[in-house]
Specification:
alpha/beta, Rossmann fold, four-stranded antiparallel beta sheet, 7 helices, 33% helix
């Protein structure tokens, strides 16, 4: 029995802009096992962010199949996709995507508000911030924090619903080397706890920290 949590089978993604077609992914097949830490590396425009959007159910493939925990994602409607994202996946982005006027605590609580998870919301958010070492910064706003601290808030928010998969898109792209090392340390801790961690990056030193490197170029996997 396969332990694959993510299975891409000959997946393509074509974007149409007027009369122009852009083949962002060209028949990509990839299997990621539960509890694995994988980096997907490629230059800008290689298709790595498109792959992240498909894996994260933010977009649907033009053709091919995507199975998540054995379930064919293409058969799900928008509400089911939203539920899958909220319950199974945590997203971390390069630009943090925090509400600037809200405290760290309020930012981390947001997914629980969207999912209707009102029970112990505040306590769960505090615990999630403690987990990333920000217990003393819960009432600070993003403008009062360093880039590394803001990314920790973003990770705490991604963890609030206890997802099985963490998807990180260039998570160290806006950080200095010290903050980058701290953030990667958190991802390693999550991996040791059994989370599936998928890093999208163009930085070879960041990619090298994963168990496995998948290299993508011009919409195709060229090495894994």
């Amino acid at each position: 029995m396969s332990s694959s949590i993510i299975e891409l089978d000959k997946v393509t993604k074509v974007y149409r802009m007027g009369k122009v077609e852009v083949n962002a992914l060209r028949g990509v097949s990839l299997s990621i096992n539960a509890g694995e830490m994988v980096s997907i590396i490629g230059a800008s425009g290689s298709g790595k962010s498109t792959m992240l959007n498909l894996i994260g159910c933010l977009d649907k493939p033009t053709s091919g199949r995507y199975l998540f925990e054995g379930m064919d994602v293409s058969q799900l409607n928008d509400n089911q996709l939203a539920e899958l994202r909220n319950n199974k996946m945590g997203f971390v982005f390069q630009d943090f995507n925090l509400l600037p006027r809200a405290t760290a605590l309020s930012n981390v609580e947001l997914p629980l508000i969207y999912s209707g998870g009102a029970n112990n919301r505040r306590q769960r958010a505090i615990e999630s911030l403690q987990r990333v070492g920000l217990s003393k910064r819960i009432n600070h706003k993003p403008t009062e924090m360093s880039g590394g601290e803001q990314q920790r808030v973003a990770i705490a928010r991604a963890l609030i619903n206890n997802p099985s998969v963490i998807l990180a898109d260039e998570p160290t792209g806006n950080l200095d080397s010290k903050s980058s090392a701290d953030i990667m340390g958190i991802f390693h801790d999550l991996h040791r706890e059994g989370k599936t961690v998928i890093l999208i990056t163009h930085e070879s030193d960041i990619a090298a920290q994963a168990q496995r490197i998948v290299r993508i170029s011009d919409g195709e996997i060229v090495e894994e």
